[in-house]
Amino acid sequence: MKKLISRRQFLAAAGVVAAAGALSACGSSSSTAGSAAASAGDTIKVGVLAPLTGEVSNYGLAVSNGVQLYLEQVNEAGGINGKQIEVILMDEQGDATQAVNCFTQMVDEGITGLIGDVTTAPTLAVVAESQDYNMPMVTASATAEAVTYDAETDTVYSNVFRTTFTDPYQGIKMADYAYEKLGYRKAAVIFQKGADYNEGLAENFEIEFEANGGEIVASESYSKGDVDFKTQLTTILGKNPEVVFCPNYYEDVGQILAQAESVGLDVPFLGGDGWDGVAGYATADQLKDSYFCANYAVGAAPEFESAYEEKYGEAYPNGFAPLGYDAAVTLCYGIQAAEEAGLEPATDEYKQAVIDAIKNGTIEGVTGSFTFDEHNNPIKTAAILTFENGEAVLKEQY
């Protein structure tokens, strides 16, 4: 029987005082976040790894903020078994090599679990390194299937979990939604090539849409750094699709939508969670009748949203923040079980107890209630968002 605990119950039952954290850009300057830690024997060290600077820092900062918010709430409510969560926060700057260096430094400092990384490539690098330590690892946002499962060798990385959807899940989900709910039968796809996220969503959308009976009339790609998409969009226009699947990040999506409008491609666009934030990059007319899937929708967890704004002085920036919060919920769920077993933090037995508890648990997070499947991916519904007056709003859970 799976063990069930809510966030509220966990906070009430747990045991210390405020989160402590050391911010370190591996090999660079460091600073301190949070309050002073208790003595070493009264703390449980948790690593938080994210790109806090660089071109994907908007995602890393959101995840890190969500993580730290929850851990501070835990410690303010008494911690876990009378022990304070000590946060070791490091900036991997969006680089896979740097991410591994940070992780090994965290291991040397005695972490008993890791929350991170944020984007796919650095996460994959850390996953490979984590196997030698059987380190409990929860990524909030790395979506590639290979993060938790190697399909070539049929190997599940038993120590690695995620709180976000996988690339295949999102592609399949949006193909089903396009065909079954929206009634489209002819679709085109435009995606960035050479990127696991973009290619993973695109490939699975195409396979599922055709399996449902639909037709992919065009599949166009572009390279990282491209800013002119008119050639691809003109080709798509000539194929007369009813809808275009655009599984890219919001900066590119904004440019693609603007250029689609300029070439006369006036059909709805669909996307994945990389669209979160696109409202500031496209007009209301360009976003009309478009949909994307996400892990979280505004208003789903008012307590979280209020707490985030109180702590950081602004509304949560995107869906990565609640996913970071839930990654922290997940790791603490496992830590609680290890503490209840009377084990010593950072030992092999302790880490295995954390892993076993997460694997068999039910997590009550702000993005929903979820368990984990055979590949350690969360089993939960997706929020389908559309746009009203240019702002993303929840259409339905699907």
Automatic annotation (TrEMBL):
It comes from the Bacteria. It holds the Pfam family TAT_signal. Residues 43-388 form the Leucine-binding protein domain. GO terms for biological process: amino acid transport. The keyword Lipoprotein does not apply. Residues 1-33 form the signal peptide. Keywords: Amino-acid transport, Signal, Transport. Belongs to the leucine-binding protein family. This is Amino acid-binding protein. It comes from Faecalibacterium gallinarum.
